[in-house]
Amino acid sequence: MKAPLHGKMMEVPLTVSSLLAHASRHFGTTEIVSKRIERDVHRYTYRDCEKRAKQLAQGLIALGVEAGDRVGTLAWNGYRHLEAYYGTTGFGAVCHTINPRLFPDQIAYIVNHADDRYVLFDITFAALVDVLAPQCPNVRGWIAMTDEAHMPRMSTAASSYEALLAQHDGDFEWPAIDERCASNLCYTSGTTGNPKGALYSHRSTVLHAYGASLPDAMGLSARDSVLPVVPMFHVNAWGIPHAAPLTGAKLVFPGKDLDGKSLYELIEAERITCTAGVPSVWLGLLRYVKENGVRFSTLDRVIVGGSALPPAMLRTFKDDFGVEAVHGWGMTEMSPLGTLSTLNCEQAQRSADEQRRLREKQGHVVYGVDMKTVGASGQALPWDGVTFGELYVRGPWIIDRYFRNDVSPLVDGWFPTGDVATIDNDGFMRIVDRSKDLIKSGGEWISSIDIENIAVAHPAVAEAACIACFHPKWTERPLLIVVKHPDLDLSRDDLLRFYEGKVVRWWIPDDVVFVDELPHTATGKLHKLKLRERFGDHILPPDQKVEQ
Ligand code: AMP
């Protein structure tokens, strides 16, 4: 065998710091705007950001943090959090973003499992830190992301972030780092069992940022003003804090106010062109713009993921506001981007209905991600848009192992996502359900997502969840749990009639329960486990005529 002929190209490592260094040099005056906890608006530039990230790196090194050590963050989307993203990873430490919406016991578990050296926190989380600190004895220090004047009163001996930065001048060269080294750590929300850590590398993070920026992904450019509403503590805000400096897009951070009015005002004031977040956030925004009869003057596209984008929401964005809702799918274990639903030339020539049907799906893969659906015996299923099976993925920004866990989650080199999906001959994937949320009625499957999507298309429905309920004959039957719009009337029978002609008869839920509020997980998804605990034994009306 002949020896392989290697290319003669430089081996420049793909490092996270290179993203900010690039933005600082080439888009040095491009703005980063943050709504602060203090409720004022903070503005500075990529150049300022890099300098302060370097000051933070110097500060952490002076505190004894070393390459490979984890530094936790408990923070909203804001410029100091961005500095933490780069001021830690830039010298080889690992930026561990912690979801503050989890239960304190779970957070303590995560901090201890990650073995965080320091934790940087927004002052809104001071009380939470007081609960956590006694449970996390290995954390050497808790650093409040504020100045001395705004230090909160706490039982924990916390120090000031600004005071730390003030001791350093930012005269610091980002060191060369092996691109395979860990850069960021993010735990899954762990609705079942303990949270598990996805430990990203510099290489995977930079490649993901490239992928996320592509025109048929988020399509970011130096002409964009991008608003990540998806939290920076949830899978690195889908990579936007990395993709924006890579492309030179202006970055706007919403802080902690994610209600419709606050978001609308920010979108208009900062001339946002692209934003990203979960459907529940857009419900609030759309309600606000409709109720107030206002329009978007610059918004071009909204990336919607984390949960299924209801078709009714896609239509409202497009037909009523001229805004493209781009459906995306991914997960923590995938950094998170997997698929997006944008159309190619030929697809864009098809009938309006056909285009809409494609856009409602979770979409095609981004280069770098490979996917397949598999059946019960592990065989690859056809891409016919009908046959569904578990979705498997692989690629350079998909986990190989969980952090500090030696058991490989892979099956023949593929990561099983736990999602059940179809793939059609356009290569468009559609999530049918989480495997554990599918409803098995008389041995046949019902997609809870499809049932929910139809419910939220009813004008009187604000939000809906569908779960399996025990049934003596069919084993499981769908139960719909609904939050009504406060000022609209809706009866159980009206809503069930709304399903007629939209699904086969046996998919129509057996009953509807109206509630004031639905529970959500720490990442904004419907908390199906809680709903099953509360309503799983709901007594279904006996007269239901199901014919399968
Ligand atoms: P997380 O790791 O918290 O981001 O959750 C990932 C899971 O969220 C996926 O495995 C899916 O079950 C779900 N998910 C993400 N995006 C979508 C989407 N567009 N449609 C349906 N489910 C989604």
TrEMBL record:
AMP-dependent synthetase/ligase domain residues: 25-403
Task: Please give one Pfam family short name.
Answer: AMP-binding
Q: Name one GO biological process term.
A: fatty acid metabolic process
Q: Where is the AMP-binding enzyme C-terminal domain?
A: 451-525
**UniProt keyword Phosphoprotein, yes or no:** no
The UniProt entry, under InterPro entries, shows:
AMP-bd_C (IPR025110), AMP-bd_C_sf (IPR045851), AMP-binding_CS (IPR020845), AMP-dep_synth/lig_dom (IPR000873), ANL_N_sf (IPR042099)
Q: Which Gene3D superfamilies does this UniProt record tie to the protein?
A: 3.30.300.30, N-terminal domain of ligase-like
Q: Name one GO molecular function term.
A: ligase activity
Q: Which UniProt keywords apply?
A: Fatty acid metabolism, Ligase, Lipid metabolism, Plasmid
Similarity field = Belongs to the ATP-dependent AMP-binding enzyme family.
Protein name in UniProt = Long-chain-fatty-acid--CoA ligase
What is the originating organism of this protein?
Paraburkholderia largidicola
